[in-house]
């Protein structure tokens, strides 16, 4: 998994900007488009092989096989060796420090409001 941090560190985190400009639905649509671009068309998932074939689109053409394997393993929550669309989207959010921070702040705000509401009930 060392490769994933190396690859991510080279790119600016644009997901928060995209989220702000596109809104939640627009961002999810763009992530879905990204997934379709990277997926193995026959299997409907992102595999190491499909990622390798499309790595140049992401500017990752210099990553080795082990680093691409690490990227897939990082998001593969069900252990099937590939990324479903949901796993891909979750991984993109996890790899975006800006979105994770915004999500945490939003969650904290919602929890505080819930606690206030519960106190007045």
From TrEMBL:
Location of the EF-hand domain: 63-98
Entry keyword set: Calcium
Domain of life per record: Eukaryota
Pfam families linked to this entry: EF-hand_8 (PF13833)
Molecular function terms, GO-annotated: calcium ion binding
UniProt-listed InterPro entries: EF-hand-dom_pair (IPR011992), EF_Hand_1_Ca_BS (IPR018247), EF_hand_dom (IPR002048), KIC/PBP1/KRP1 (IPR044205)
Protein name according to UniProt: Ca2+-dependent modulator of ICR1
Organism: Hibiscus trionum (Flower of an hour)
């Amino acid at each position: 998994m060392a490769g994933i941090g190396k690859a991510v560190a080279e790119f600016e985190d644009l997901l928060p900007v995209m989220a702000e400009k596109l809104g939640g639905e627009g961002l999810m649509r763009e992530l879905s488009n990204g997934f379709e671009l990277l997926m193995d068309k026959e299997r409907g998932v992102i595999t190491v092989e499909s990622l390798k074939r499309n790595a140049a689109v992401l500017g990752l053409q210099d990553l080795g096989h082990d680093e691409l394997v690490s990227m897939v393993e990082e998001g593969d929550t069900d252990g099937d060796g590939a990324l479903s669309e949901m796993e891909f989207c979750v991984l993109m959010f996890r790899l975006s420090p800006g979105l994770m921070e915004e999500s945490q702040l939003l969650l904290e705000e919602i929890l505080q409001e819930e606690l206030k509401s519960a106190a007045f009930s």
